[in-house]
Amino acid sequence: xxxxxxxxxxxxxxxxxxxxxxxxxxxxLTVLIRFLMHQHPVIDGHAxxxxxxxxxxxxxxxxxxxxxxxxxxxxxxxxxxxxHSAHGAHTWRxxxxxxxxxxxxGIQYVVTSFFFFLVGxxxxxxxxxQLSKPGMQFLxxxxxxxxxxxxxxxxIFLFVIPVFAGxxxxxxxxxxxxxxxxxPRLNALSYWMLPLAGVMMLMSFLAPGGSFASGxxxxxxxxxxxxxxxxxFTIAVQLAGASSIATALNFLVTIITMRAPxxxxxxxxxxxxxxxxxxxxxxxxxxxxAASQFFVLLDTALHFHFxxxxxxxxxxxxxxxxxxxxxxxxxxxVYIMILPGFGIISEILAVKSRKxxxxxxxxxxxxxxxxxxxxxxxxxxxxxxxxxxxxRIPMMITTxxxxxxxxxxxxxWLATLWRGVLHMDTPMLWALGFLTMFTLGGISGIMLAMxxxxxxxxxxxxxxxxxxxVLFGGSVFTIFAGVYYxxxxxxxxxxxxxxxxxxxxxxxxxxxxxxxxxxxxGLQGMPRRVAExxxxxxxxxLFISFASFGLGLSTLIFLYNMVASWRGGPRAxxxxxxxxxxxxxxxxxxxxxxxxxxxxxxxxxxxxxxxxAVHGIFTPxxxxxxxxxxxxxxxxxxxxxx
Amino acid sequence: MRNRPVLQMVVIGVIAxxxxxxxxxxxxxxxxxxxIQAGNIKxxxxxxxxxxxxxxxxxxxxxxxxxxKFHMRPGEELKDGxxxxxxxxxxxxxxxxxxxxxIGLCTYAYIVLxxxxxxxxxxxxxxxxxxxxxxxxxYPKTNGKTVVSSELYLANHQPVVFxxxxxxxxxxxFVPNFSEKIDAVPGITTSxxxxxxRLGTYPGECTELCGAGHSLMRATVRVVTPTAFKAWLAAxxxxxxxxxxxxxxxxxxxxxxxxxxxxxxxxxxxxxSATATAAEGKAVFTGVGGCSSCHTLAAAGATGTIGxxxxxxxxxxxxxxxxxxxxxxxxxxxxMTAITKPYAYLPTGFTAGIMxxxxxxxxxxxxxxxxxxxxxSVAK
Lengths: 642, 380
Fold this sequence. Notes:
heterodimer, A: mainly alpha, Cytochrome C Oxidase, Chain A, B: alpha+beta, Immunoglobulin-like, Cytochrome Bc1 Complex, Chain D, domain 2, 3 domains, 5-stranded mixed beta sheet, 10 helices
């Protein structure tokens, strides 16, 4: 029987077929092994599900067509030469296909991430509904534990981390004058792992026993004794992590090898520096969370007893080891979730203040300092974990020290504003909102570094307040800033600035009303991750719940603005913000291959106010002398202002 | 002053600090402090506030002042700011000053930490055993008896070191008024010290997510006068010492559905050497067993809703043919299996993985027998 063309060509039909094959493979393999090992019953739903969770996504990735080229090449068949015919998206359907164009992948990333942003936000609304009054409201405790676990996991692994990768995917090759990322097919594969991870996390709600309910931290041995839903987390994190690592490698190689002629490291825009630093963090740290979750998987599925202090050959499972391995990733992860935002803010503040970024080199060096120091502070999450008590002291000191490079960045941004010509439009409002809110989150971070104070507030709502100030007031504000800033470039349309400002002010106000009181109830002793609480916290919680609903509603303004503007906004000029970096020197949206002629970079990226300064030129320089002169005058110097 | 923007900002900043610092210090952030340690931490927090407010004020002042003075005015659409690339002196200042500040704060925090964690004269040891979802407190042996209670009693001004043990997953014991906490970690003993300084009744709570009953895992803490403490201790019966985490040799992996599905016929019936009464069983139900966090049982005044309602389900579920086959024919056998191997038979509507499956290890045989006696006597 001939196989229909639809099932042979890459795409959704073949992906569906491969899903079925993947499940059959998992079923067959599990039954075979259980039969050979004399395990009874031979057909075990749990075991089959676990194997299927690993096999089905891999089969899907092959079916949808992310690996066709490599299979042809490995089999010695003629590969389809890359004629770039698949570049660009002509209809909305093209966004649902495997595409190797970094601009298409960037939009796929951003839109997918925002879908999960809405899902995570809705889960937050459910959490606040449950907490509006003491006592149980809508959910049973185990459902509640599942909801906040999925809320955190989805927003961390499916929103904040990938949306930065998405924005950078779109903008970064343009910024460095490259036609695409270094590994376009790997780029596509990285993207397609993401929705799989997200869908798996959400599907855990359907698992018997409910979704994973041990928090996004999944501390052992709670996680190793959870019902089946926990493994949806364990395996989905592997997919999201693999996606992260592949993208980070791609960024590193792209930044190192594909910069336009003349773009030295110290002529790179700070967004490129930020993603370079972030990618270093991802590549070094992410394997550790993969390891921690493999431990959990092996403990749960195959009874390895890594974390079981009561059972096993020597009853010597090491519970605290899980936390060390986990935080060795998850602390750098907070920088993975903020450094790209730092880059976005640097771009916006320079352009919108019409001034060079203040202290460019120190801005770049402080990013690298954060990368290095970021690996030395993980155990500050564990001051009350029962680890050896002396470790707390060096961790307190390194944690405090990491505020110095962060402080350098904040003060340099402030100095960039000084005496500028501030264009107070939507991206700028978000950038300034970030600057103030992230400062608050940073201050509570310094407080948390102080061990005695941390002992009082750890595992309380003070932590919830702190982490939302840095992740919402910090990361999410930068994401909104970046999305508004590059919206004209990515869509070719202008957004509605008035609605954008409404979005900012409603979010800013309700954000503070929601999260500021959490500092207080945390200090008063309300533990985090509780489905119900003591009556004395009732008033504040009701207040917080109402504020959070306002915060949720403010997102609707954003959604409307994005959808309406993308469909029918006024056409955007190539360079609506009068930016100097290369992405603004091409049309909006950019041509399929980004640059019709390769740009030559002749100066720094933020030479605003310098008469006659340019960052890149698009005709090959005729005069060698001119290039040299431009290069020397544009090198970011540390001149005194006097 | 018109042409001295920096001076203007300094004035604004000083005024803002003068207003904000007192406000920050007046807010009643902490619950009533009831230990020496809490007092130290409150003072540390005040110092942190005094150091933090100026930093926040600097950032806010520069941002708002810049927006006020330097925003683009009509006609300036194409104007650029002055090309200031940096200022080495400024950058050195804002690297050095924060460094000095954090060295000071870290030193002070270290001193507070040493003071809070030092052993004090006349210290007694109280063992805290945590399990899903209850705490039990074991006091030092006095007059040849060991007292174990589910409420924590402390003598005022009597320094105490808590030693924490966990019987299943990670828990944490936190009394907000004492400002100290630490995790109870399976396999190791952790500890923290406090000296209570204020009479009263305080909430103790588990702050480390430990499962479905986490939010209900609380204990009452009473700080009483030393005389009242002695009298209370003397009036307590000698309780059985807690069986700290010694699993039987055939112990199965806790909580894994399917892993503990050995047939009930071979269920390890705890030895009947000690006799247990229904009254003791009730105490275990409401206290150290933590059963009332999840189950409803009128006879024990329990109203938990996570697990099956024992008033409605206990007798009827034990009478099904399936249950009789798996959990044993008699009511006592059925209850015993339900406690020690909860997933051997799952009542309809409930899933595996929620009820702790480690009670055979974490409760003593006497405690389990007491529970069985109590439950079979009240089962409707």
